[in-house]
Design brief:
It contains 10 helices and no strands. It is an all-alpha fold and 192 residues long. The chain has one domain: Hypothetical protein af1432 (Orthogonal Bundle), CATH 1.10.3210.10. Helix 3 crosses helix 6.
Length: 192
Amino acid sequence: MVQTANDILIAVKNFADRAHGDQVRKFTGERYIGHPVRVMELVLEFNNDIAVLAAALLHDVLEDTAVTPQELLSFLSTVLPEQEAERSLAIVKELTDVYIKRDYPSLNRSARKTRETERLVTVSADAQTIKYADIIDNVTDIATQETDFAHVYIQEARAMVRGMDKGDVRMRERAFHAIEQSLARLRDHARS
């Protein structure tokens, strides 16, 4: 078992980095691991629970990689006590999009995102706090783009944060602030 919180987070980050492999962020082109690291760092400002921080680093692994829940639990069990490993996995599962195009091809993006928002309202406070941090990082990145999709995504993010009210209040306020700043940035781009 890894001993210090820092050692655990390094091991989790390395696992997430290997899982994401050569993936890059859509709008920045940076290696994907930068995103979950920033999400974890945001969460760390208000929460030092190691299972939650591990989930923040791993929040996209089940959704965006070939790693299975069992493989993730097997890894987590090498760095966390069993109960904490299971809790971290449960949070990651809560953060994994259910209403994806592959599984719901008859639903358009708007319908899938509406259902996903309704689902996120029901997840744990820890999962919502991580989702707020995820949204903060995503809207900050996407606001650098002058695309119609940027407007759509930021409005979707606003609806998600409005619906999710169980997470850390301070992080939720930061998410609202990041959304408004991102919308203002897009408006400024449109005027210039």
